[in-house]
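Fill in residues.
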């Protein structure tokens, strides 16, 4: 993973997160095609997380939170989220954390 330089301007930061999201989505699709569903979901989560962080970077000049919690990140962007989508974001985040940190 590339390190983000603090001297990047806002457009460069947004472009960074979009590029990272596209790369994660590409990996997720490849893994899904190979029927490696656990890792496909893991990288799908990363893609969602990075898209939300790109939106955050575009709407705010504050530092992007170091969080994997999709619902919390989406709420920071003030995205209107239906209840069923909230439950999905929570499930995806929980799966991601459990796969990343088995003792979570």
């Amino acid at each position: 993973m590339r390190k983000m330089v603090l001297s990047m301007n806002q457009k460069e930061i947004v472009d960074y997160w979009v590029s990272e999201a596209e790369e994660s989505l590409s990996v997720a699709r490849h893994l899904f095609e190979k029927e490696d569903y656990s890792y496909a979901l893991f990288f799908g989560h990363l893609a969602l997380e990075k898209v939300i962080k790109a939106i955050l970077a575009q709407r705010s000049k504050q530092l992007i939170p170091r969080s994997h919690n999709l619902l919390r990140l989406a709420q920071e962007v003030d995205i209107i989220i239906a209840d069923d989508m909230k439950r999905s974001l929570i499930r995806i985040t929980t799966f991601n954390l459990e796969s990343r940190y088995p003792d979570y």
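Residues 20 and 50 are 7 Å apart (CA to CA).
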